[in-house]
Amino acid sequence: MTATEADTNLSVGQRATLLEVVDLSTTFRTERGMVHAVDGVTFTLDRGRTLGIVGESGSGKTVLSRSIMGLLSGKNVIRTGSVKYEGTEIIGYSAKQMSNVWGAEMSMVFQDPMTSLNPVMKIGKQITESLRRHLGVDKDEADKTAIALLKSVGIPAPEQRLGEYPHQLSGGMRQRVTISIALACGPKILFADEPTTALDVTVQAQILDLLDEQQRERHMAMILVTHDLGVVRTRADEIIVMYGGKVVEQAPTSTLFASMKMPYTEALLRSIPRLDMPSHTRLDAIPGRPPNLISPPAGCNFAARCRYVQPRCLEERPPLVAAADPGHFYRCFFPVGTPEGDAALQANISAGTAVAAPATRSSTTSEES
Ligand SMILES: Nc1ncnc2c1ncn2[C@@H]1O[C@H](COP(=O)(O)OP(=O)(O)OP(=O)(O)O)[C@@H](O)[C@H]1O
Ligand SMILES: [Mg+2]
């Protein structure tokens, strides 16, 4: 019996795996051509665990999250693969079927609290509406729950806040409100899509700590989407690194940081500020642009920007392969920290081409201008 079959024989209550995503792809039909925004993503998420999804802007993080949640619809969206929630396939679910899943089973906190809150509706109503719809509670009960929720997310004088509008709150307080709405119906998975990028640096850590705390208390699973490897380093159990719609590296967090294999992951790591760096240290932004998703390059998607690049990388697409450690996968012919990788990097350094591939040097983007 395979692990998956054994799992199917467990009752839903016992099942450790909450979400199973297999070979999920999401393509948009556009006037310019087919945009392959998410390409063949596979992972599982167990109850109470945190998965970090990391990558630069445009790598497919939001499309992946929204595709799993069934929030992308219309005839221009093509989804293939499988998304199982508690063992049930939900990829073919209609919006009506998904509406029983949203809020109560899976919910989402977005990047900008201002766009997810209704500016002309009082905060109290925005929280209680969802409670009343999903949990069928009366107004008094919903108000009481809303006050308790606001309190639990650290909003002072919650009774008073119920009657206020979003613009009366600071950015950090607004994001606390959106988190309380996302938590209102006790979801088993919370998708947090760059939940702090619109906030001040000092508030960012508070919001991430709040998410951690709520997650632990509720034994909720979380998918934390960010462009910052530093954010998921201490908060995620497992990390998926995306590039050009594909998973390029995937591993338990400690394995990833102990033995990362993908030059792109290494480049991302070099691009985050560290506390021990003097302020104004120039960070290594990754030169060049992400790949074209309509007509991707013939070889590795990252080849044009890679310090390790070799002729093979331009011709052949590297498959996702397993590393020595369990659960660690990567997509590279010249992995970081291996004899082949070291030789490739040394050769490029000697040739003076290791900063960026020569082909992209003249077309680098704003990072250098
Ligand atoms: N509705 C759509 N139609 C066509 N292309 C789309 C659509 N939505 C997203 N895309 C494209 O899919 C790719 C992935 O976008 P996505 O928003 O998932 O990136 P991201 O990793 O979340 O980036 P960011 O960090 O900026 O939020 C981008 O190239 C984007 O332009
Ligand atoms: Mg996004």
Describe, in plain words, how this protein is organized in 3D.
With 369 residues, the chain is of the alpha/beta class. The chain has two domains: 172 residues, 3-Layer(aba) Sandwich (Rossmann fold), CATH 3.40.50.300; 102 residues, no CATH class. It is 34% helix and 21% strand. The protein is built from 15 helices and twelve strands. Strand 9 and strand 10 form a beta hairpin. The longest helix is centred in the middle third of the chain and has 18 residues. The N terminus and C terminus are likely disordered. Adenosine-5'-triphosphate (ATP) binds next to strand 1, strand 2 and helix 2. The site of adenosine-5'-triphosphate (ATP) has 14 residues, from strand 1, strand 2 and helix 2.
Features of the shown structure:
four-stranded antiparallel β-sheet, alpha/beta, disordered N terminus, Rossmann fold, 369 residues, binds magnesium ion, ABC_transporter-like_ATP-bd, disordered C terminus, binds adenosine-5'-triphosphate
Separation of the first and last Cα atoms: 57 Å
Mean pLDDT: 88
The biggest sheet, with number of strands, parallel, antiparallel or mixed sense and barrel status, is: 8 strands, mixed
What series of H and E elements makes up the topology? HEEEHEEHEHHHHHEHEHEEHHHEEHH
CATH topology of the largest domain: Rossmann fold
Bound molecules: adenosine-5'-triphosphate, magnesium ion
CATH superfamily of the largest domain: P-loop containing nucleotide triphosphate hydrolases
The number of E-state strands comes to 12
**What proportion strand?**
15-25%
Indicate the radius of gyration in whole angstroms.
22 Å
Keywords: ATP-binding, Cell membrane, Membrane, Nucleotide-binding, Transport
GO molecular function: ATP binding; ATP hydrolysis activity
Domain ABC transporter: 19-269
Membrane topology: Peripheral membrane protein
